[in-house]
Amino acid sequence: MTVCIAAICEGITIYGASDRMITVGDVTEYEPPTSKIVGLTSSIVAMMAGDMGLQSEIMRELQDFVNDRVARKPDEWLRVKDVVEWYVFYYLQAKLKRAENEVLIPLGLNRHTYLKEHPDLVAKLAKELINYEMPGVETIITGIDTHGGPHIYVTDGVNIRCSDSSGFAAVGTGAWHASSQFMLARHGFNSPMPETLLRVYVAKKRAETAPGVGKDTDMFFIGPKIGASSTIRADILVKLDKIYGKLIQGEKRTLKNAETEMKSHVRRITRASTKEAQAVAPPAAEGGAAPALAAPADSPGETQPAPPTDN
């Protein structure tokens, strides 16, 4: 239950935002003073959505691996895609560990010994391990490297999607609301920086209408040079919120004016249609005079003329 957003601007810089809402178990939601934005290096950031227990487990392993890699090769910039693939590796390791504990350990087996069992049992257990259901997670890993500049990747732990061409990505329950903001703005990889910064903030605020998206907002930027990244200062967030407030008020006025104009237009159409209907004369009878309209002989409440007599 969350929203995480990343967008590229001017082909050299990335802006991102997320809320702080987390879900504990199936029902409990709250906003701790902890960001979902994890700085993996000075140029690569991860943003987490979904089950925070699983995400924390994966991120600890990933962060340790990245730190070790940077310490061993400090002059070699990590590729964003490599970090995404390492995330997937640790996700699958977590899946295998959990599946082993729930499927094999109760049978006195493990991932190695079960292969020695009867082929039918091996096939059945292998299917259970492969189909083991994990808690849902979505992660954006974004950053700048020496292989093509800014990158945005999205993964659910198994599948990987590159969003470089669209220039933005969003995950979590508020992803649809956030993405629609970028699509309406026709956002692109080379969109200007001020507009992109505002779009990211507005997208986060729009996403708050989705269930489970929190009100608190954390933002960051990476670039324009490799190795440059930081959180967005509090005073800038305050300014963005004021601009957003004006935007909302302007939208309300525009919508009210549009509704008033539409009501007036509908009234004019209705009046014109009524006049046209009243102006239509009944067809004239043969000879020029309009025929008299007589009530049916059996009309209730009407007195019928007496039949003629011989007198």
Provide the β-strand percentage band.
15-25%
Helix content: 40-55%
Largest sheet: 5 strands, antiparallel
Order of helices and strands: EEEEEEHHHEEEEHHEEH
Spatial order of strands in the largest sheet: 10-1-2-11-12
- Tell the overall outline: globular
Residue runs with pLDDT of under 50 for 5 or more positions: 293-303
Q: Pairing-aware structural class of the strands and helices? A: alpha+beta
User: Termini, distance in Å?
Assistant: 98 Å
Rg, alpha carbons:
34 Å
Count of helical regions: 6
Number of strands: 12
Average residue-wise pLDDT: 89
How does this model look, in words?
With 311 residues, the chain is α+β, with helices and mostly antiparallel strands. Helix content is 41%, strand content 20%. The chain has six helices and twelve strands. It has helices spanning 52-72, 80-104, 119-130, 175-184, 193-207, 234-278, and strands spanning 3-9, 13-18, 22-24, 28-30, 37-39, 44-50, 137-145, 149-155, 160-162, 168-172, 218-222, 229-231. The strands form three sheets. It has a five-stranded antiparallel sheet with strand order 10-1-2-11-12, with helices on one face. Helix 1 crosses helix 2 (80-104), helix 2 (80-104) crosses helix 3 and helix 4 (175-184) packs antiparallel against helix 5 (193-207). The longest helix is centred in the C-terminal third of the chain and has 45 residues, at 234-278. The radius of gyration is 34 Å and the shape is globular. Mean pLDDT is 89; it is low at 293-303.
